[in-house]
Amino acid sequence: MRLRQSLPLLVAAALAGPAALLPTPALAASTATVAAPAPAATASTAKAPAAPKPFGAEIAAPNSSEELGRTAAPLPAELLGQALQPTGTAVQTTPHPKSPASAKHALTAQAPAAAGCAPSDFGSRSGADLASFVQAATTDCVKTLFNVTGTDAANVFKQSQMLAVAKAFQAQAGSYNGDNSANLLQLVLFLRAGYYVQSNNASTVGPYDATLTAAVKSGLDAFFATAHRTDVSDANGAVLSEVLILTDSAELQAQYLNVYQQILKSYGNGYNAFPKMVNAVNSVLWAPLWRANWNPAYVSAVTADPSVVTTLANFTQAHKDLLTTPNAFLTVNAGNDLARAAGDGAAVEAVAKPLIKQVLDSTPISGAVGKLYVYTAYNANQFDNAQCSYYGTCDLSGKLTAAVLPNTLVCDNRTIRTEDLTPAELATVCASLRGEDTFFHNMVKDPGAIPGQYGKTITLAVFANRDDYLTYSWAIYNNSTDNGGQTVMDVTDPNNKPVSVMYKKSYDDGFPANVWNLNHEYTHYLDNIYDMKGNFSTEISVPDIWWIEGVAEYESYSYRGTTDTQAMAEAATHRYKLSTVFQNTYANSDTVRTYPWGYLAVRYMLEKHPADVQNMLGHFRTGDYQGGYAVYNGLGTSYDADFDTWLNACAAGACYADGPTALFTQAVNGGTVTLTDKSVETNSQASLASWHWTFGDGSSSDERNPVHTYAAAGTYTVALTVTDSAGKTAATPASVTVTTGGSATLPTCTDPRTDALGQNCSRPDQARTAGSLDYFYVYLPAGTSTLKVSTSGGTGNAALYYNADTWASPSAFTASSTNPGTTQTLTVTNPAAGYRYVSLYATTDFAGVTVSTQF
Question: The domain 659-738 is classified under which CATH number: 3.90.1150.10, 3.30.2160.10, 2.60.40.10, 2.40.10.270?
């Protein structure tokens, strides 16, 4: 799947779903909080599968950059159409493995644990002593317990421990005052962690019985009986959300249907000023009302009183206005749950059917509200498939395709389906793909298609923009969407029909008809047919990502005759040895190591050691991936020195494409950016003749060195297209951040580790309780002249600390900013290259704070 551009481009969209924790790469935006069963033949005869596991901790979502992805097999139905969460948040759904020492980070892979927060500190206590210790801990400390395993899991979460905390929760819940001043939330988090850990370590932790269930229920009853649990405030929302999820973790959903309905009926647009209260409403939708359908007691309760189904339908219809806002997930999740309920048996289906049809009939398929139709229709098909004719969804993928990808061109063995490409643009795309075949075969020198594999025809689906790609592509093509396009195929499946899904950029990206990643994705298809025997999991059974993604990058740029400017910039840094890049996997490599360095490795090997490449591919083509890996792994470090020398020449211009290369620098002063053209013409008698700039705010310029002033602070995509006297063009985009009108809104840092900062990026929505620390690190390249660290937004008081050598804290810092509130700034001049450390200290509770780094 296509990654990479030099932009720190946009992260997950509003519908980004929960993703796995590190070190696993970010999952698809449509990937799930739970695993759904296969669709039932009929609602009344479906056999209830085992309930999914309880949810883990709510965390900051790993940044699912639109550049992140890969070629892959289609996602199964159970990983699509899932309940959603707000942008930037996720829920842990699998145990978090202990991270190994990172190659990027010289110290421990995790931020230092606070004193008294080791599993043994909990496991060595019992009874009232344990409950008191839990309440005295920070919420961040308690959240670490979601990841305990083995002996620690048994010591911390055996039933006697859970009972002690449940009794404390029961004793204190009745006096809840609308916030966490009494540290009730820590007890709730401990109980949630226990259910989660026990579900994943049942043989170690031991069983939980009705005694624990009764104790937890008593606490929940006491909590929901308090007046303050209905407070519309962020303070209440933070606690209420976790309590609602606890009802789900304890499998007590059937007992609280009235509570769920009260929360949904109470929601109004006044809640939108309180994001944590909005999240509490959403907790009803994505936790109990989604997962509970696998609980027979819940299904029986809804069968006896299906009023919750009507409540969901009313909520969906009443809040369609949210579909064009960041809170669209509320309405979509209500539609999800409504459609899911239809699979709960004939009695519930009878109530749900007309309500689902009403939602579908009153919701356009395309446009800003289309996501509600897509998710509701998908889940109606998934869980009430026998009624698809009634719903009009029997061929949902075909219906969606006809509505949003109406334009088709058959280009030999390729069918191009698009949303808005003109006939001329379709012809341009077809011509580009036809020429790419020959280029690929000349490059890899394959003997023909690998025998016995399927998929000799391919569909290329092109959406008009990223929003439409996120809304529709997964439901049509079963692809993941936390990426800039994806090639979905399984050459071992005779029924699989390969598809490359992609979308157009709003600015010139140098691809034919502005179809981003067109040639990269098509290379994945060709590589699968001619070079890689077996399905995707077989292909990546060895560290060969340097080839899979590197060859797609190399062909994309070389075939189009354009310069990979990010790869050239990376070559100058000498960041990785060739022997290191050879060990690339999707788990150990960020986008820079995967894409520009994959490009450099493939280009070097094709230019300098083509026999090694042919030897490797000879093994890959027979399915001998261990043998192919042995070819380059056996080289050890023998090519490292020559590769390093080659990088110098490459960065100096030897790897520039013939013709123009668009390059520029930027200087920002407040809201004004001064852009200086640095474009070059290589190996050509032509000369640069014209320049065209787009500034990302709807304006443009044809000056060579324009100065542009933005009306508002923010990060914009500036793209330069240069044309030489021979008529050849080249384009390069980059992000520009301006500060007019207040603090700059820097893009979210793209490193999957949420404690990693980066160049000109930010980590939003940071929160800590009084006395605790929020730790970060940042890698500074050689030559960094100034590091600026700042915090802004949110509520409370957060002090900022910096340390050049170890984790920063109020007792270990070399620079600090300790103004009242959350607005802090510190600047470090001429810092040495390497890892440096930043922390936010909670002088009082703080929440919603953004920490940013600029250098």
Answer: 2.60.40.10
